[in-house]
Write a structure and sequence with these properties.
Layout: E1 11-13, H1 21-31, E2 37-44, H2 51-60, E3 68-74, H3 78-88, E4 94-99, H4 103-114, H5 124-138, E5 143-146, H6 156-167, E6 175-179, E7 183-184, E8 187-188, H7 191-208, H8 212-218, E9 228-231, E10 240-241, H9 246-257, E11 263-267, H10 287-305, H11 312-339, H12 346-369, E12 376-377, H13 380-386, H14 390-404
Parallel strand pairs: 1-11, 2-3, 2-5, 3-4, 6-11
Antiparallel strand pairs: 5-9, 6-9, 7-8, 10-12
Helix pairs in contact: 1-6, 5-14, 7-8, 7-11, 9-10, 10-12, 11-12
Enzyme class: transferase
EC number: 2.4.1.266
GO molecular function, one term: glycosyltransferase activity
């Protein structure tokens, strides 16, 4: 059951359980007649072998308000791409699979590379960026939604609630972020949000003082949620981060491009679970260790753009302040779990905080050593300006793949 709380920075749309999901879907079907909705699914081939994606497709098959589904497929050879085409053929909606590792899309990527506009590294950010480029080239949608392919608690109501605020013409919102509690198997999950982002933002407020961007990030109930929707009109100006700072990076772009009145967050589920990344204490290039470093760098870069001056001393102070706040929050999370019958392992939580504290300083050192690092992929407006034919050729390349390897 949701509360009535509004933080004053962005609108929070709650989930009181007073509206039948079928009624919500009927409204969406009406609005979708004039505002076409597309869904982007960034997927690894390995996710086609998991039960979660199959269940997601079963739900999406009855989501009549969705006009088109764009699947970005990574790490697939030709045989696997053929299988993916067959796998997704169960979807009744118009759908298309981008074979990101196929020769046609690799040729597009090479052309972008020659102009120094190609994504710098593989991953979800690159996948989403190409899907957005395709959506813009197809010119057949007014609303774009994005969510992951590993959600094990998925229902189409989650998607309906996510797109409703930017589809209903009576609402002013152009961007909507989903939120939910990360609870599964009687455990409290969402470690990076709970143990890194929340205490880090509180620490930043103490160390650097009042800051509008920090307040903006603090207003989101689940800033690392991978579920968001937006009006297609803002997509050409949105830059997509290529590293694991995708969600924070998108929020930063929205902060730069939109008024707060055009931004909202919506409660999309009572419970949410997906695959969990390892802490990866012994390998800083993987798991939550890599993720925490990339998130910290994304926040530092945005604050620097807004005029905040960083130094080694500030990062050391930030680490100490963060560490004390995070330990206090572990006590709060433990008590919150206890009253709800959830397990919170204090030892594991403190190990996570110790790793994140070290990475706060490590990310700061990387930032100071290379302040000109450009992790954002150029937006599609810049690509269009550099090569006016490329988006059309991207569309034709995806179309040719889908026709040649038809299931």
């Amino acid at each position: 059951m949701g509360d009535y709380h509004q933080n004053g920075n962005v609108a929070t749309l709650h989930r009181f359980g007073t509206l039948d999901p079928a009624d919500l879907e009927r409204e969406l079907n009406h609005y979708a007649q004039t505002r076409k909705i597309s869904l982007i699914l960034p997927s690894l081939y390995s996710e086609l072998e998991a039960q979660a994606l199959s269940d997601i497709l079963d739900e999406l098959s009855t989501a009549s308000f969705v006009n088109q589904i764009i699947i970005g497929l990574d790490r697939a050879d030709e045989e696997q791409y053929r299988y993916a085409k067959e796998y997704f053929s169960r979807l009744p909606q118009d759908h298309v699979v981008l074979w990101n590792d196929g020769p046609r899309l690799k040729a597009i990527d090479s052309r972008l590379g020659e102009m120094d506009l190609a994504p710098s590294e593989p991953g979800k950010g690159r996948n989403v960026w190409y899907c957005i480029g395709y959506a813009l080239s197809a010119k057949n949608c007014d609303v774009i939604a994005i969510h992951d392919c590993d959600i094990v608690t998925y229902s189409k109501e989650m998607l309906a609630r996510l797109v409703y605020p930017v589809t209903n013409a009576r609402f002013p919102y152009q961007f909507c972020k989903g939120f939910y509690p990360r609870i599964a198997d009687r455990k409290m999950n969402g470690r990076v949000t709970r143990l890194l982002v929340t205490p880090l933002l509180l620490a930043l407020k103490k160390v650097i003082g009042q800051n509008a961007y920090v307040d903006y990030l603090k207003s989101f109930r689940y800033p690392l949620a991978g579920e968001f929707a937006m009006r297609t009109a803002i997509l050409p100006e949105i830059r997509i981060p290529s590293d694991w700072g995708l969600e924070i990076g998108v929020l930063s772009e929205v902060y730069r491009n939109l008024s707060s009145n055009a931004v909202c967050q919506v409660d999309i589920a009572d419970a949410y679970d997906h695959k969990h990344q390892p802490l990866s204490e012994d390998d800083a290039t993987k798991g939550l260790s890599r993720m925490s470093t990339d998130i910290c760098k994304a926040i530092y870069r945005k604050l620097a753009i807004d005029g905040v001056i960083f130094s080694p001393e500030i990062f050391r102070t930030l680490k100490a302040t963060y560490y004390r706040i995070a330990l206090d929050l572990i006590e709060v999370y433990y008590n919150d779990g206890l009253i709800n019958g959830l397990h919170v392992d204090r030892h594991v939580e403190e190990r996570s905080v110790e790793l994140f504290a070290a990475n706060i300083v490590e990310a700061g050192q990387v930032f100071l050593q290379n302040p000109m690092e450009a992790p954002f992929i150029p937006n599609w407006s810049r690509v269009q300006a550099a090569d006016s034919d490329l988006m059309r050729e991207l569309f034709e390349a995806v179309k040719a793949d889908n026709e040649e390897f038809a299931a």
